[in-house]
Amino acid sequence: MTHEEIIATIRNHRKSLGITLAELSERVDIRATTICDIENGKRNPSLTTLLRLTEALGLSLFLQ
Fold first, then answer.
1. Which of 11, 16, 26, 63 is the most exposed place for a label (fewest CB within 10 A)?
2. How far apart are the first and last CA of the chain?
3. Do 58 and 18 touch, CB atoms closer than 8 A?
4. Per-residue pLDDT tens digits for 3-61
């Protein structure tokens, strides 16, 4: 998966679960504006941030 595909998966899954940026922000303790910037390609998240986001959404970055 490319970086863009990972971010799109995070965004699409968050929306399909009906989770707002504010709700996700509270779950992972990252500002909603930062998550918005990540989802819109304005910021490149660290691996740690990606892991926190995916775990909060019940996703995994790793192949199973």
1. 63
2. 14
3. no
4. 899 999 999 999 999 999 999 999 999 999 999 999 999 999 999 999 999 999 999 87
Which one, of 9, 64, 48, 56, lies nearest residue 1 by Cα?
9
Q: Are 38 and 28 in contact (CB under 8 A)?
A: no
Sign for the pseudo-dihedral over CA of 34, 61, 19, 27: negative
Radius of gyration of the chain measured on its C-alpha atoms:
11
Dist. CA 49–CA 64, nearest whole Å: 20
Helix crossing, 21-28 with 47-56: angle to 10°? 110
